[in-house]
Specification:
Blueprint: H1 16-23, H2 39-43, H3 54-62, H4 66-70, H5 74-77, H6 83-87, H7 94-108, H8 116-131, H9 136-147, H10 149-165, H11 178-194
The structure holds iron/sulfur cluster (2 copies).
């Protein structure tokens, strides 16, 4: 995945097509109604971990700041709790816009690797593409080995306990015809992109 270090400019509108794409989507068509009230940021339980509050993400989308939006940690930190969506006076589907932004990051291969959330997500996605479902042991091992090798050893006793109790299967359970599932997921992503 490509990671670009961009200089944050407050006002740039380099990608009007990006704005159009979001506006023409089911999730994003109400973005122009945003009154910048900040109710979304104020009600977000993980706001402090974000580099850019949801309110500012919408202002940046309207300005066509594609790189700044797609390289932001915010969509990856979003916990999909829907609190902002419930509180938004403009009835913008904020949570669903966050999902769309994540899909766009994957499509455009423009993903920030500064966040544990995005790194974890990519490994999770890989596992689901391979097995058709999550494989927790493989997910945890890969994530820890590549991103937190120093902490791995401390997690071993807990992992062994979970394996003994049966809550952490040793081997992956692949669904039948995982290949077809993988193709279907990839086609869905492409279709989603074209429909924007
Ligand atoms: S709550 Fe809605 S209207 Fe207010 S800033 Fe957030 S997106 Fe905009
Ligand atoms: S859905 Fe995401 S952005 Fe909205 S309040 Fe929850 S965590 Fe925050």
């Amino acid at each position: 995945m490509r990671q670009t270090n961009i200089r944050r400019k407050k006002y740039s509108s380099n990608y009007p097509d990006f704005t159009k794409e979001i506006l023409s989507s089911d999730e994003g068509h109400k973005i122009l109604n945003c009154v910048q009230c900040g109710a979304c940021s104020g009600s977000c339980p993980v706001f402090k971990a974000m580099d850019c509050p949801p309110r500012r993400i919408f202002a940046m989308i309207r300005e066509g700041m594609r790189d700044e939006v797609l390289l932001s940690l915010t969509p990856w930190i979003c916990a999909s709790c829907y609190k902002c969506t419930v509180n938004c006076p403009a009835q913008i589907s904020i949570t669903d816009v966050m999902y769309r932004l994540k899909r766009m990051c994957l499509e455009e291969q423009l993903i920030t690797m500064k966040s544990d959330a995005s790194r974890f997500y990519l490994i999770f996605l890989d596992q689901v593409k391979k097995y058709g479902r999550s494989y927790e042991l493989g997910l945890m091992l890969r994530y820890m080995v590549f991103h937190h090798p120093g902490k791995l050893i401390r997690q071993v006793p807990r992992g062994v306990k979970m394996m003994i109790s049966g809550s952490l299967p040793l081997f992956p359970h692949r669904i039948r015809n995982a290949r077809a599932f993988h193709n279907m997921a990839m086609n869905a992503l492409k279709f989603d992109n074209k429909s924007m």
